[in-house]
Amino acid sequence: MAKARGTAAYLVGIDLGTTNTVVAYADASDTSAGLRLFDIEQLLAPGEVGPRPLLPSLRFHPAAGELAQDALRLPWSTPDVAGVQDAVTGTLARVLGGQVPGRLVASAKSWLSHAQVDRHAPILPWGAADDVARVSPVAASASYLAYVRAAWNARFPDAPLERQELVLTIPASFDEGARALTVEAANIAGLPALRLVEEPQAAFYDFLHRHRDDLRVQLAGTRRILVVDVGGGTTDFSLIDVSFDEDENEPQFTRSGVGNHLILGGDNMDLALAHLVETRMASGADGGMKLSAARLSQLMERCRAAKEVLLSQDAPDKATVTLLGAGSRLIGGTRSVEITREEVATMIIDGFFPLVDASDMARKGRAGIVAFGLPYAQDAAITRHLASFLQQHPGALPDTLLLNGGVFRADALARRLADTLTHWRGAPVTVLHNDNPDVAVARGAVAYALARRGQAPRIGGGSPRSYFLVLGDAGKDQRAVCILPRGANSGEEIRLLERRFALRLGRPVRFHLASSTGETGTPPQLGHIVDLKDGDFVRLPPLASVLHDPANPADKREITVQLATVMTEVGTLEVHCVAEDKASLRWLLEFQLRAGEDPDDDADTVPPRVREALDKIERIFGGKAQKVEPKEVRQLRQHLEQGLGGREGWDTALLRQLFDALLQRARGRRRSAEHERVWLNLAGWCLRPGYGDALDSWRIDQLWAMFDTGVQHHKDSQVCAEWWTLWRRVTGGLDAARQLRLLDDFAFNLQADAAQRSSRPVTLVNGSADDMLRLGASLERIPGSYKAEVGAWLLKRLEKTRGRTDAGDAHSLWALARVGARQPFHGSAHEVVDAQTAAEWLDKLLMLDWKKTEAAAFAASHIARMTGDRSRDIGDAQRAAIIARLKGIGAPDTWIAMVREMVQLDEASTKRILGEALPPGLKLLA
Q1: What pLDDT, in 10s, does the model give residues 470-482?
Q2: Residue 407: CB partners within 8 Å, gap ≥ 6?
Q3: Apex CA 471: angle with CA 467 and CA 475, to 5°?
Q4: Which of 347, 389, 485, 875 is least crowded, fewest Cβ atoms below 10 Å from its Cβ?
């Protein structure tokens, strides 16, 4: 019988896992009927559909005509929300991914928390060939939820999923950005109304529900529970304190701690096994064997299946891992390797759960493995991360352990973790029974929904983190004020009354936040000042918005606001600016989730003579006409440096203040050629590299509005040169569409014949070959295929000019290094030139005399730079040749190191590859 619109017939829990998606539900009107699993209809083989409780969180993107339409027919017909025709989801996707390399989308959930890439960009499958359709991590996640919605609605047409009471689970360690992206994915899937619950809590809610009739017995001696949830892509720790009130019949629960985000889980174990198998396969291959990224992904799927077999109950002594040959070598190229149950258990137990001391700390630093583009945790030892977590949450060590995740089906792993905790506390721990780790989180999400209705025990504790507002833009003292204390209740708005902010309507505003899960020392309260250097604080994406009065959008007055913070019932953080004199006037600040770097807050504070500098800018470019000699215009930069110091020492905060002053006076640049040259030069310098401050995207939008009008003094060659220098300097802030627009002008200036040039529109600014060379090399967000064309032009240019001028060769080689770099500075790694093209360029560079042409060695070191990502890295033999040549000419050790291993560029290399220094305090993690 259909329910009235707006009334939920079912309580539904969805575990959107890295490996599998699981759905559980209960009848909202008869919860005594218990919790049930929703068997999801999915393709099991071409043309074969069947229900399964687990939907593998995988997508397979077949080639055109690879699968017949009848083979893909499902009981429903809905388009793919990710926009890929004939995409396969679930069990068949896993089967096909194990057979055909390079077409499987996996680990989308892990990508949601990878802030160094654009999570809205189509980058998956990672390292796929150009003819393979790609989707973004957000779109992939949305597609799994949309698939579940379609399957549910086909089975319950009178109770569509979007009208039910939904709970979606997320890792406890997800930051606010990843949580917001998860909610966005649900909206795309047509599920706009839901709540979030953390996965370790959900696992415990499942335990509470299963033992609801004997909780006092089950937890009689328990005072602190440690929940360890090791999923396919993440590891989560949570502490839950248990108390008994003499007047209460049941125990009370308070969540007292959660861990920081760890991209460490079953995928890492599968990768470790794949490396072992690859090594064994290579030992029997002529000339060795190193798999491509796509083939390694295929091997990981085979190793995952073998791991699950060998770690299951009544497992065989060994299993065979077979990797099919590729293409015409499908049969002859097939290789098989046996791995034993003992060696798999030993590798995973000793590698991921080693015996460590309670005082050990997890190693920190850059990712130890960058596989398929994901920055896995540097330290693979889950037990060491657990030791660090417990040190951050002082008090009694946990006496009870609840384990969740498929890996704990292996008794040896569960025993190792229990033994480790027993060793630390000097007494045995109680291990709570988890009857089905694969589905416990989904069932627990339903139990959470019951708890919210008062029909089951509920875990208290409020917000698992404290949130802080960073004071100042770049203060050395690293101070922050608490705006939401840990433990704050969901839905309860907290206003920071002690702090007021003067903001101007119509102008962007931004705030920097940090969070902490630790509780060392006195827990911070609302308004307390903390030092970010003293503790384990995590910087969050900046909050930014442009405030407008809805009653008068043109109003530019300055108003006083306060910050109001709430942990929403959905489970996400919201921060509002609230007008002090009119509480109904409020603006929601949104997290800026596009990839990019924030400035290092150790940057120097703004120099005291900024006001004088702004006055100088006003004198030259201000609205009031002033008699200014051309010489004074030309010397503006020198005059600014006299008061502020050399411009290379201007930090990001100062640079952006100067840019904002220039932007407000942009019309003044048209007064003369001298004005325009100076304005373009200073504006580009002050906004470089186009990002680094939370408001830079807004600044770029304002600057881009000038692009189509071009320059006023278009016949002045220096004005034209400064125009292209400006855009080169800020390319890091330009999205792909804008960079492609620059590429159009790049192509025209290089390829147009005399007739085309004579009809050039005035707004299309002329550019010399050198101007275009520098510009083209800076366009990191254009597709890799276009970069290959730019590189081919550079190589031809090099052949024509080689030997004429050392400077000409150096410029071309510098540009080639930038275009062919394995690690982009502001672009995404999926946009680099393919590895085969890079290898061909290196072959040509190896033909040059590096002793005479040092720039060739510099270019080769960047094109051959080690990333750890097989889809980008060159072959081992060529790498060895590059290293040998670099050593032979006495190249700097840093050049050799970047080819041999994964390293971060030093300041000198960064300055050279970018063409100029970054603002002080701004670091590129590349």
Answers
A1: 876 544 457 888 8
A2: 230, 265, 266, 269, 311, 348, 413
A3: 130
A4: 875
